[in-house]
Amino acid sequence: MRIARGKYVRPQSGRFGSYPPPATKVIKSLAKAQGKAIVESGAVSANRLGLTTQQPVRQVFMTTGKSGELKLGNNPILLRHVPAWQTMFANRPAGQALRALAYMGKAESGEAAKRIKGSLEAAEWEALMRAKKKFPAWVSKALEGAA
After folding, report:
1. Is 22 within 8 Å of 15 (Cβ atoms)?
2. Tell me: the pLDDT tens digits for 89-120?
3. What is the pLDDT of residues 60-95, one digit of tens each?
4. pLDDT class for 16, splitting at 50, 70, 90?
5. How many CA atoms lie within 13 A of 23 on its CB side?
6. In 53-121, which residue ranges form alpha helices assigned H by DSSP?
7. 33-68: pLDDT as tens digits
8. CA dihedral sign, ordered 49, 129, 41, 72
9. Rounded distance, CA 96 to CA 42, Å?
10. Distance of CA 123 to the CA centre of its chain
11. H or E segment and range at residue 142
12. Beta carbons within 10 angstroms of residue 97's beta carbon
């Protein structure tokens, strides 16, 4: 099954016919093949951490590679290029917290950082604090304010 130019996946079979594999499985193998970090969007992270009640409608993933779109059946998957700091701690709770903070933006970053600190384990929070020099100034300031 063709999902993009030069990219194919093996469809799964069920009693109602064939269907595409889950998006997370496709993204994981694409990240491995490209050698680039691909992570869920900040909107999904913010929702999982309870910072927002909005449920993202489109599947958007963030990558340090090129932006693009994958056609996985009737569901498009959007890949958006972001700065490398947003993909740090890719599959860890600290990374999810960082992406949620970036999604909330400057205006709400202080309050969001306090709520995030309460939901993270101490080791994950410490990992964020150790790496804060790699983040933009407003993110570092929000993390310091919550500490």
Report:
1. no
2. 988 999 999 999 999 999 998 999 999 999 99
3. 999 998 999 999 888 899 999 999 999 999 889 999
4. confident
5. 18
6. 93-119
7. 888 889 999 999 999 999 999 888 889 999 998 999
8. negative
9. 8
10. 20
11. helix 137-146
12. 28
pTM of the model: 0.85
**CB-based contacts of 90: which residues, under 8 Å, 6+ apart?**
37, 39
Sequence ranges of the domains in the chain: 2-146
Tell me what pLDDT residue 91 has: 85
Q: Which of 48, 29, 52, 32 is nearest to 40 (CA)?
A: 48
- Percent above pLDDT 70 for the chain: 100
Evaluated on CA atoms 133, 134, 137, 142, the torsion sign reads negative
Task: State both tokens at 8.
Answer: 């194919």
Contact 136, 104 (CB under 8 A): no
Q: How is residue 83 annotated by DSSP?
A: -
At residue 52, what are phi and psi to the nearest 5 degrees? -145, 155
Q: Which one-letter DSSP state was computed for residue 91? A: T
To 10 degrees, what angle do helices 93-119 and 122-130 make? 110
Cβ(119)–Cβ(71) under 8 Å?
A: no
